[in-house]
């Protein structure tokens, strides 16, 4: 069976001319109930994104906390900002900048800034909102980045961003928000997940609404290959397994997880973790065999992946609504979770 044709758009420099950033001078009154994601800086500061799902306008709020213990209290936040779109995903790309994937289809670059207060002997914190770049014709569903400290092959792609959207496009952006690669008709029904290989800055994987998993290598003329397709067990999201070359952890829409070798296209270590769709996968940095997983459930799990074996290591049901945010603290190793119950909780994993 031949691979479907993937259209490659011409490469460009910048999406459009740069404009001066907009400084955030308004902090929302409170943190919305629906906390969708958590992201830590290298120093342990917490960025939190929410969406208002039941109001007249569908907006997204971005919050900056000096310590995760302060979340989600708005009065303890360093600053916050309301965006005229829901925030689908956010990633820290350097100590001073975040990149946001929005429901509008735009990619938003945010710079964290501070200045001495004009009248008080304190610092004033704010977000500089750089111009957004809208190259997707539908909402961005996921994004990922290659780390600047990648131990693998960099090829100048450190901090590059890969986005996927419901328009079926996959776009690779450089650090100036210029487009280096654009692929259309990748997953015609829409892209649901993107995962960059942290050990090779030319390799990433995508998942489509059709349940297929595709592996990408930007060095090759034929950039992508379908490595998984099973209508009875459609994939929902994926993540590269640390320390295992070419191996993906695949989470299905039925709550099953398993390992996928992208070279041989074979699966192993099938494990039924939950009976709901899995939405989020986060690996521990100081204990790379541990992985936190959450989905459409109040319970989240931590699994242990060792060679070709998967086992459940820890489970917790303290949230009262769906768990959406997962983040491991970069210095303490504590797992932090957030959910649609407007709570942020910490968990010491044994």
Describe this structure in words.
This protein is mainly beta. It has one domain: YVTN repeat-like/Quinoprotein amine dehydrogenase (Methylamine Dehydrogenase, Chain H), CATH 2.130.10.10. 0% of the residues lie in helices and 49% in strands. The chain is built from no helices and 30 strands. Strands 2, 7, 8, 9, 10 and 11 form a 6-stranded antiparallel sheet that branches. The protein is globular and about 65 Å long. The termini are far apart. 45% of the residues are buried. Mean pLDDT is 89; it is low at 10-18.
CA radius of gyration: 20 Å
Mean pLDDT, nearest integer?
89
CATH class: Mainly Beta
> Would you tell me the structural class of the helices and strands?
mainly beta
Shape: globular
The description of the largest β-sheet is: 6 strands, antiparallel
The CATH architecture name reads: 7 Propeller
Number of domains: 1
Number-wise, the strands total 30
The CATH superfamily is identified as: YVTN repeat-like/Quinoprotein amine dehydrogenase
Total helices: the number is 0
Our measurement of the CA-to-CA distance between the termini, rounded to an integer number of angstroms, reads 47 Å
In terms of DSSP E residues, the strand content is: over 45%
Question: Within the CATH hierarchy, at the fold level, what is the topology?
Answer: Methylamine Dehydrogenase, Chain H
Topology order in helix (H) and strand (E) letters = EEEEEEEEEEEEEEEEEEEEEEEEEEEEEE
Any low-confidence stretches, pLDDT <50, length ≥5?
10-18
> How much helical structure, as a percent, in the residues?
under 10%
């Amino acid at each position: 069976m031949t691979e479907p044709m993937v259209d490659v758009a011409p490469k460009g420099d910048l999406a459009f001319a740069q404009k001066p950033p907009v400084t955030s001078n308004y902090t929302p009154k409170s943190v919305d109930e629906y906390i969708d994601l958590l992201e830590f800086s290298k120093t342990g500061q917490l960025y939190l994104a929410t969406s208002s799902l039941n109001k007249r306008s569908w907006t997204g709020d971005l919050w900056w906390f000096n310590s995760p213990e302060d979340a989600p209290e708005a009065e303890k936040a360093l600053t916050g900002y309301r965006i005229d779109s829901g925030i689908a995903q956010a990633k820290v790309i350097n100590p001073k900048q975040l990149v946001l994937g929005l429901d509008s289809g735009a990619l938003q670059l945010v710079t964290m800034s501070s200045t001495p207060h004009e009248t008080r002997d304190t610092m004033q914190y704010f977000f500089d909102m750089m111009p957004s770049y809208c190259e997707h014709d539908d909402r961005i569903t996921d994004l990922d980045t290659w780390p600047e400290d990648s131990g693998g092959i960099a090829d100048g792609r450190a901090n590059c961003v890969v986005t996927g959207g419901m328009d079926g496009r996959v776009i690779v952006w450089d650090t100036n928000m210029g487009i280096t690669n654009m692929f259309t008709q990748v997953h015609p029904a829409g892209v649901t997940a993107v995962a960059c290989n942290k050990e090779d800055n030319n390799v990433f994987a995508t998942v489509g609404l059709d349940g297929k998993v595709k592996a990408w290598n930007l060095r090759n003329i034929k950039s992508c290959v379908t490595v998984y397709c099973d209508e009875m067990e459609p994939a929902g999201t994926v993540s590269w397994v640390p320390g295992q070359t070419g191996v993906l952890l695949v989470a299905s829409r039925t709550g099953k997880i398993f390992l996928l070798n992208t070279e041989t296209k074979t699966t192993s270590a099938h494990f039924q973790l939950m009976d709901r769709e899995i939405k989020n996968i986060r690996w521990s940095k100081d204990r790379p065999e541990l992985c936190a997983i959450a989905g459409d459930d109040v319970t989240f799990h931590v699994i242990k992946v060792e060679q070709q074996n998967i086992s459940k290591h820890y489970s917790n049901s303290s949230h009262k609504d769906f768990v959406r945010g997962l983040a491991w603290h970069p210095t303490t190793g504590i797992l932090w979770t957030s959910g649609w119950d407007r709570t942020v909780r910490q968990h010491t994993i044994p």
